[in-house]
Fold Cyanophycinase.
Amino acid sequence: MNLRFRKLTLRAVLSASVLLLALPLAWAASPAPAPARPASAAAAYPAAAKPAAKPAASAPQAASAPVAAAPKPPEPEPAVRGYAVPIGGALKADNEEVWQRLVQLAGGKGARFVVFGTASEDPEASAKQVVDQLQRRGALAEALPVAPKFSWVDLNKVVRDQALIAKVKAARGVFFTGGLQERIVDVLLPNGQTTPMLDAIWDVYRRGGVVAGTSAGAAIMSTVMFRDAPSVINILKGRFAEGKQIDRGLGFVGPSLFVDQHFLKRGRFGRMIPLMMSKGYQIGLGVDENTAAVIRGDEVEIIGDRGALVVDLSAATSKPELGAFNVTGARLSYLEHGDRYHLRARSVTPAPFKLRGDLHDHESPSFRPYYTDEVFHLDMLGDSTISNAMSRLIDSNRTEVQGLAFDVVPRAGDPLAELGFLFRLYKGSDSLGWSTEEFGGEQYTVTNLYLDVSPVRLPRPLYGQWPVPAASAAGAQP
């Protein structure tokens, strides 16, 4: 199927959703009109983007001035020189780029790995799968018996076992499998207290080694993590608490970066932003399935099949007087294979093959957008909806796209059953994108789009029976 046919088909499907724009959105004030843009010309940009700029202005608000997050002082250069590699989950056996990179970062053929199946329901099988994949790429890998599901293991003793700790210290790589991330934290950092085995893992990391993890193994990378939060919409509604939905992580990416996994597939940007605002994070990195982020110091590189989302709240504001979660001016960047992000500079460097493709600069006189139709998303938290919306908007003559998120089947008696959220994704003067088909399918890099989220009321029921005309009803046969 050629590109134009695919795009036209997508256009037809998405345009149909505009018919449902009449849903009542009455919780908050109407969204601001599309932002005005300066008429300045733009040339091609060699790497990152235009100089950072504020998002396009929204309509004036009658309420009191928004409350901005308190700015953080500049951080010192990180002392850690190892590699943290969060993998978004569902890592496939044939993802050569990720598996080979892990072995390469740990020193190449013969690199020693220890594998923790701690999070898994079947830790022996999960760890064996990872051991097999690493060994196929030339590593020397061994699974360690550190898991709550091993009922015959005394976890208090095993995390202090000097023979096992010696194996960790002799390794150049550590890998955590998927499962329940709280199991990893509860075993290695019980009640917030470090253990000799966790100290040994940190020793590997500080010596320049690799600490990698998939799914649950990625969630533990930040100092704060989601412990058990199955419902994104409930997090948006403010239903999260310490020790239940959120908890401490192991912190390999440092105190200033929040990491989440299964990110685009499960619409988890909807839970990331409330947690970031609650905990004072300014930068978040959401890694999608079968994708990894290689993080060393301030440098982040995306590898694998899908992509990642960077959320920057350094200039975002919120209005507590609305009485529900809201944010204005969250800055989003969507990265794919080969793209890099610098955490301190807040800058994106597209992969070289993207720079050989098309530049999408909505302020340039030479900008020729492909998409022209209006789109409204009825489930902004759907599978890859946010990344698709970003890729489409950057290649469009539209200035914004909107969508909703709400609880389709709220529990009985839920006092917040009618609370939904309106998402407004829009361009700023520094918004840029790149795209290419060099490797067969379309690949995008999108930088500096902006997101506002507002609480809205969606009356229940959302729909009712279509009224039958009186004449038809009278003539109906019994």
In short: The chain has a mean pLDDT of 87. Residues 101 and 108 are 9 Å apart (CA to CA). The longest strand covers residues 419-436. DSSP finds 13 helices and 22 strands in the chain.
